[in-house]
Amino acid sequence: MKSMFAIGFAFTALLSMFNSIFEGRVVAKLPFVPISWLQGLSHRNLSGDDFTDCSFIFLYILCTMSIRQNIQKMLGFAPSRAASKQGGGLFGTAPQLTK
């Protein structure tokens, strides 16, 4: 529980700091035009009609989704593979009793 709050706080602080620095700037050029329901996020606060331009928030979300697990493992907050396979998570099913 503590690890979730620590990681969440760190990523939220980074988001607000970088969002103010890169507001209105093109940070990447996408090799594709995003599907219509992602264009609002990928082109957020950018001027122009070139939807291959990428805003900071879209790139941040993609990076956060891809590196969050690795950072948790590196800092020792994530459970080991063996524990996650056997545990079943918070809402996992209880072990079956055999007679």
Automatic annotation (TrEMBL):
Entry keyword Transmembrane helix: yes
Chief localisation class: endoplasmic reticulum
Membrane-related topology note: Multi-pass membrane protein
Coiled-coil annotated residue ranges, if any: none
Cellular component annotations (GO), alphabetically ordered: endoplasmic reticulum membrane
Domain of life (superkingdom): Eukaryota
InterPro entries referenced in this protein's UniProt entry, alphabetically: EMC3/TMCO1, TMCO1
Family: Belongs to the TMCO1 family.
PANTHER family: CALCIUM LOAD-ACTIVATED CALCIUM CHANNEL, PNAS-RELATED
Name of the protein this chain belongs to: DgyrCDS7425
Organism: Dimorphilus gyrociliatus
